[in-house]
Amino acid sequence: MVLLASAAQAQQQNRGASAAPSPAGEAPVVLDQINVQGGGVPGGALLSGPTTTRTTREELDREQIQSLTDLSNRVEAGITFNRQNNTLNIRGLDGARVLTTIDGIRQPFLVDTRVNRGGSNAFDFDSLSTLDLLRGGSGASTLGSGALGGALAVRTLDPEDLIKSGRSYGALAKTGYDSTDRAWFGSAAAAARLNNTWFLLQGGFRDGHEIDSKGNVKTIGPTRTAPNPADFNQYNILAKVHHYVDEVHRFGLTGELFKRSDRVQTRTNAVSLSGNFRPGSYETGEDIERNRVSLSYDYKLPGSFLDEAHATLYWQRLKRNDLVSAWRYTSIVGPYGRDNQNEENAYGFNGYVLKNFQTGVLSHRVTLGTELRMSSLEQYSAGIDNCPPKPASGRYTGAFTTCNNLHTNQADQPKVDGKLIGLYAHDEIGLLDNRLRITPGVRFDWYEEKPQATAAYTLGGSQPVGLPPSSSDSAWSPRLRLEYDILKNAPGVKDLTVFAQWSKTFRAPTANELYGRFGGPGTYLRTGDPTLRPEIGNGIDVGLRFGDRQLGGSVTYFHSNYRNFIEQVQIAPPGGLYPQGGIVSFQNINRAEIQGIELNGRYAFAPNWLVRGSFAYTRGVNKDTDTFLNSIPPMQGIVAVAYGTDRWGAEVSAKLAGKRDDVAATTGTTQGFRAPGYAIFNATAWWRPVPQIADLELQVGVYNIFDRKYWDAVNVPTGVLAQARDYYSEPGRTVKATLKYQF
């Protein structure tokens, strides 16, 4: 876990001391009685544990982290943001196998039958208060489906985070430039309180271009190594109102909007100078939009019937559009456009209560909670092309044969109504003056995905016959954790705790895996399988943690077995009704094993000085074929040395990765991507010119100082590469500058 220099730590502590309002004549209420954010227990009540680490708002700013890629390069070794499918990779698993929550609200993994990309990064880092990263499956016992590899839980800013003690208002503004994607960005947040009511309004933007790489060949087609030209714009708006009835009860209202649009001018293998699609006339794009309105309630009164209670009632919409705008020059000459849309509307309730009590020599900390969710998912592909109306035979022939492949203005899956009920209970049992803690816990989940008939699906080119059946199943996610404090308040390392935990996890199939249906007679068919069973994980974590923020760290060994992995497979070869590609579907086939070691540590070895580090080694094997998993990252480490005062500070860091040769064949003799090892070095410096007058800070960072060419192995497509190798390389030397002002 990254730490700040001592001055920044002091700043964080001062902000955390702000007080919540209280009725006139009563003593002020300390914010931490209700607010669980900031420097509190990593993960809070639901994700706390030995494999959870927290990055605070101050740490995000200090390390100039504005993306999950930044997080993996500067703080958390062993994780990767996979830009191929838009998801986070934890312990070698990504996609729907890693769960993301925003303010405790589950984020769906929306993947289109035509485009294998999710949208789990639909949030702005400048709107965050904390970011919790849980490695491994122990979070499934409170979060349920999707947390096979781990979970990313982010919390947005509260008004209490900006208003310092004794004030009734506060504000934060930030702007800067990042040469990685030539992006200008900015954000501003303002908070105020009126008696017992607190208000927050935050907004941000980021406008830029394609992510840089070390490729410099700008030819057209498969030999190109330079990135495709691209433009994007992103913005978010966050509004919150918190009302304190008294010292115990807080009600909240939150509204949030996030939107990002990307447009790419294709210059790679999809176009050629004399082909059907040509440079300048083939643009792709992606739009992601997330809207949320939520009501919250927080209660805290230790010693009463319940010590704490927290509840959230919400509506959320996540919408993804994958776009193509092009012109054909040879086959079916004329315009060609596609807008593949997935939209999920969800209504839900999350809530839990905490109670501490004693039974004889045993102490108990009981957590009881629930998750209730209803959703409606619709997919539709709109499009234009220059094909004539379909003939009565249903098949195009002659010059228009290609039109048989132009499946558009249809739904590739039925509308799907989903239901989820989750119930969980945990009890942290303390013995020997709470030096030994045993925490049994379990979550029960029931889910149902029910297809609904729509004309867009029934009349689609894949010619479905009726509706597929509903998919419904249930799962238990138990967890057992043991912790023992070998040392308490000892000299040197201070505390030393050994821990071991066992947990079971599951991941329900996505709607695309169950019901996606794309293609048609005379071409090919990609179809889902409504009989799929959930993926199941079974794993252990064993290790120790020691020390505090001055000298501390942890070591963890983990081992997990997975079964019923959902994989896309060829179930019928080309021929018959589907001569072009046969039939491809999903099946529960693979058994997999993933194990490894994770370490992190920090040491403030002198006044104002800090050294920190993170290390991860993961090994994964497909047990069916006894081959390696191509989603496993290489051995990685991060080490940094920082110095800071109340006026200025600097840090030098390095990201190290071993080579990745342990890969498996994907098709025929084609191997997974073999990546050489690398070491990249970074340096940052920050300056506060007048800390006595204003909290104004200028920060500059230089990343990959020596302009090293390297590849993030997990961020390279598996199978045959469509472009030359350098096309998939990471950015060379980049610079980021930020200016921040807070009052």
From TrEMBL:
GO biological process, one term: siderophore transmembrane transport
Domain named TonB-dependent receptor plug: residues: 52-151
Predominant subcellular localization, coarse grouping: membrane
Pfam families from the UniProt entry: Plug, TonB_dep_Rec_b-barrel
Keyword Iron-sulfur: no
Alphabetized UniProt keyword annotations: Cell outer membrane, Membrane, Receptor, Signal, TonB box, Transmembrane, Transmembrane beta strand, Transport
Family note: Belongs to the TonB-dependent receptor family.
Membrane topology, from the record: Multi-pass membrane protein
Organism, as annotated: Bosea thiooxidans
InterPro entries with a match to the protein in the record: Beta-barrel_TonB, Beta-barrel_TonB_sf, Plug_dom, Plug_dom_sf, TonB-dep_rcpt-like, TonB_haem/Hb_rcpt, TonB_Hb/transfer/lactofer_rcpt
Compartments reported by the entry: Cell outer membrane
Keyword Transport listed: yes
Name of the molecule in the record: Hemoglobin/transferrin/lactoferrin receptor protein
Domain TonB-dependent receptor-like beta-barrel: 259-705
GO molecular function: heme transmembrane transporter activity; siderophore uptake transmembrane transporter activity
Entry GO terms, CC: cell outer membrane
